[in-house]
Input
Amino acid sequence: MTEELEQLMKNLHLKRMLEIYAEQLQAVEREDASYTDFLARLLRAEWHSRQEQAIKARIKRSHLPELWTLETFPFNKQPGVNRRQIRAFAELDFIPKAENIVFIGKSSMGKTGLASGLLLKAIENGYRGQFVRAQDLFDEMYASLADRSSRRLLNRLVKLDVLLIDELGYLNIKPEQANIFFKLIEERYRHRPTIITTNLSYDEWPNFLGNPLMVDALLQRLRHYCHTIRIEGPELRELQG
Output
């Protein structure tokens, strides 16, 4: 490789091509392959490398606490989960259809593991997503009231292809926080899907969100295009949630 060619690859940030150039040059000379094939090998390797880096960046931005995968979920230990249904969700058709998914069940049933596995699958397939615990979300909403950044917070969350809200339960929240949460669900409605894990049945939501009329309107939007999975089975210690 000439110094000029090496410098050009560095300037163009073609890191993977630079790494494999000598190896692939020897390979095409040995195989008597064409220049076109040589170039295709270099470009293909560079493209795959950039795709992998893009996935890593999306995963980092998603704030997933653990990289739980659907492939490693212990379905045989949790009879309360329909494996075929989860595999259907893994096809990700719910994303373009903007269909919400709500996992309801007691603690340690595997809700968080399943929800996180779906979010990871979406990210690996090019979607932008974020994991946020419900308590952290409401704390962020409360903080946004102080500096009047609620609209900016909503804009960021609404634009996500998939939003996962984990551990929605009995939280001590103020009416202003509930209002922002309602706006979040309302603005994502029919546009982008939201995944929620909770230990509360729908009829218990007014107990922590307050304002039954608002909760009724919220649930109408959330459940209109929604898959509700109620998990009743043994605890899974290795998958909290």
Q: What stands out?
A: The radius of gyration is 23 Å. The beta strands are 100-104, 129-133, 162-168, 194-198, 226-230. The chain has a mean pLDDT of 93.
